[in-house]
């Protein structure tokens, strides 16, 4: 399989990533090294694979394990689509606002250096909106918040995206609808909260270093930090897709990389100052440095749920609203529980072709076993029959590059010739077609 352009930039024969690690050894976060290593080995059969066999023509198919990492451009794409699809059916079918809260440009490096503040950064953004509904309208809204750390040029620009129900649930389960967001009040509150958050969580030495930035951020933003929440017609699917596209994926899409010549990378970006599409050309080392700073810390949740969408109270809130709407005959919640789709289901929906169908004969591939990496060696985890085990053993040798003895190879060739002579026979009304 041809590696995508991001893999070539990092891991081609020039060894840019290895050189970057050697040059900046000790300065790179442990989780960054872990995620990039997972991305490097994603799809490599040396880390394990599954064996599929066509029931018609006996074509063998090796399916390598994927890394499912946060930095992987392949794995995160499917995960984003599945997340938005499942969540679309679980949220209340009411109007939502997409609220974005940003900070002053001079404070971005403060959060880059003190990443421990990002969790409270998200919580405080949500608290402001949640308290407005609770104090003003006596209802609890539903909020899905996501931390977004990168700008269009891969610069570090932490801000919070929130999907907020326009209304909320009262204590008796009644749902009340409101469609007003007090921008001026929220902007000033958000500015105060961010500045206080930094001052309260830094030690005296660090506060002295950022004091000038804090003062400048306050004086240059007389109306408060920017808060954006345009009115929308309740297209929850599009809003969730937008949030997932920018929050659950790596900092740059492969399609945005225009050119790579071995030393420099050119990529497209949208300049929001003039609304134009532009390109930027930078050295590979600078490109890598911009890219890896957006990998979150291990176990850090970039998407969180609050209010009636909180994981602890979601089921109870749904039940209370359901009882109320039965009585009031106002149908707010029509959510249905969906199961996660399998890989072949997602591929069939995207391409129109079932990847489990053989292109040679049109028959279906059957799962026959798999191999896992244990203590640095590939070992058979599942083998559904003796033939499958023999094929898996041969595949392990091929993948590992081990030459088998001549006698063993001759015996296996004899066994394969004998297996091919076995006629197709009917067992219990079904055709037995597997004879390798």
Automatic annotation (TrEMBL):
InterPro entries: Transposase_32, Zn_Tnp. It holds the Pfam family Y2_Tnp. Residues 142-312 form the Transposase IS801/IS1294 domain. Residues 15-103 form the Transposase zinc-binding domain. Transmembrane segments: none annotated. This is Transposase. It comes from Cohnella cellulosilytica.
């Amino acid at each position: 399989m041809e590696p995508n352009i991001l893999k070539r930039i990092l891991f081609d024969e020039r060894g840019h990533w290895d050189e970057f690690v050697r040059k900046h050894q000790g300065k790179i976060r442990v989780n960054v090294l872990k995620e990039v290593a997972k991305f490097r080995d994603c799809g490599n059969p040396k880390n394990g694979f599954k064996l599929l066999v066509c029931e018609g023509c006996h074509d063998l198919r090796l399916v390598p394990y994927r890394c499912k990492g946060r930095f992987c451009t392949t794995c995160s794409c499917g995960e984003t689509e599945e997340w938005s699809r499942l969540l679309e059916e679980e949220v209340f079918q009411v109007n939502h606002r997409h609220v974005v809260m940003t900070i002053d440009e001079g404070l971005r490096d403060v959060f880059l250096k003190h990443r421990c503040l990002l969790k409270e950064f998200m919580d405080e953004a949500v608290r402001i909106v949640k308290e407005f509904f609770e104090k003003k309208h006596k209802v609890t809204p539903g909020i899905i918040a996501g931390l977004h750390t990168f700008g269009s040029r891969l610069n570090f620009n932490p801000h919070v995206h929130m999907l907020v129900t326009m209304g909320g649930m009262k204590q008796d389960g009644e749902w009340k609808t409101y469609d007003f967001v007090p921008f001026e009040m929220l902007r000033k509150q958000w500015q105060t909260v961010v500045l206080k958050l930094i001052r309260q969580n830094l030690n005296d030495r660090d506060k002295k270093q950022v004091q000038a930035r804090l003062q400048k951020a306050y004086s240059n933003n007389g109306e408060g930090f920017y808060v954006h929440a345009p009115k929308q017609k309740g297209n929850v699917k599009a809003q969730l897709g937008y949030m997932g596209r920018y929050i659950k994926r790596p900092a740059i899409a492969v399609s945005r990389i225009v050119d790579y010549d071995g030393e420099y990378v050119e990529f497209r970006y949208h300049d929001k100052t003039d609304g134009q599409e532009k390109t930027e050309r930078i050295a590979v080392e600078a490109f890598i440095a911009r890219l890896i700073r957006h990998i979150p810390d291990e176990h850090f949740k970039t998407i969180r749920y609050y209010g009636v969408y909180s994981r602890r109270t979601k089921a109870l809130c749904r039940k209370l609203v359901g009882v109320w709407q039965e009585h009031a005959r106002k149908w707010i919640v029509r959510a249905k529980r969906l199961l996660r789709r399998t890989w072949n289901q997602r591929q069939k929906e995207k391409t129109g072709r079932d990847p489990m169908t053989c292109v040679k004969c049109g028959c279906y591939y059957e799962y026959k076993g798999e191999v896992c990496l244990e203590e640095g060696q590939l070992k058979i985890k599942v083998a559904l029959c003796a033939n499958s085990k023999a094929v898996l053993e041969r595949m392990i040798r091929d993948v590992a590059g081990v030459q088998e003895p001549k006698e063993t190879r001759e015996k296996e060739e004899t066994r394969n010739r004998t297996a091919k002579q076995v006629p197709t026979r009917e067992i219990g009304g079904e055709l037995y077609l597997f004879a390798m």
